[in-house]
């Protein structure tokens, strides 16, 4: 009877030894070599051993993290060739990166990017929780189909450096390869611009607002001021990045482990923030006039009147909606009919906020952002809204397909793993027919001393 023989070997061509005598205490199937078994005590005996052939699991993992690099092998060889020009070049080392260091961590760094930290919360707030789950499912389905197709192409041939571009160009022809390569180039260019703008937005809106060069005099000019600040600081950041590329990215690569630590720390901070806000919400007050959200530009106290000494005085908010700071001034009709309240912007998961945000609340451009569930005294139909008042307006018209387009770039991080195809270990598993009499069991036999059969490149 013919039985299946599984022979898994890495790029070095080694085979798993064995003989016909089973032994449960041995880490190898059908092996009686006690010394060989003791050599692998405490080691990782998984199917994919990564870099843990001769080192313990913990020490090998720490060593791999210490030597973690963001550069693919081609970039490193190019840097070394430029530094050793005119001298003796170093021999090219065989790629030895495994699944964790070569695929998982690079993809993790690209997936957890500016869209996740800046736009995902806005997408959920507009589309609601149910449609956000549907959106994530659609995007992840596209990623899964891409990964499956990539695996199908990679297992049918030898894939050297070049990643997805190499596989597409060799599978579909140079015409499709050139078109896809152009799309990759444009996509990488626009992604760089997106990350630069995201960096500046975090810097000016959350970390150091005082660094803004252009400041808005009223709420209507905040968008234009932010755009001008992005132009100035974006040019500076782009110049620094061009200088780094000109000097050599190997200097930035020395901080690859630091960047990886920042990403992992950010992920942990998200879960820690959710747990903390559920029991102890942070103090992030939002001022409302009726059910309309107010921008904190031009006033500090969320009230119409305040007490100073023994008398009642008007606040800065009064002066924004009325003709003067006096009590007998003429004020806006909506301001006169509705009260000013202050709510917490981050009430926590235990406040019932999840139930209120199950469904979508799409907005059109120029509409005032209102708090659902709160009553207010409205105005007559056709009453114009003064755009100079400190309301929070929707700056764009939102709909489902637009939100999918905004979120989709965050799931394209798998390309960072496919582009490292030249750095990964070559681990091949093949099935061989073996005649073993009438015994129906499948076994692994030792191939030492026997010539290995030749396989075509697509079967290695």
TrEMBL record:
| A single BP term in Gene Ontology | potassium ion homeostasis
Residues covered by the Amino acid permease/ SLC12A domain:
103-298
What's the protein here called?
Answer: Solute carrier family 12 member 5
Membrane topology, as annotated, equals: Multi-pass membrane protein
The yes or no answer to whether the keyword Cell membrane is present is yes
Q: Which organism is it from?
A: Macaca nemestrina (Pig-tailed macaque)
The protein's location, in the record's own words, is: Membrane
Which positions, given as ranges, span the membrane? 103-122, 134-159, 179-209, 230-249, 255-274
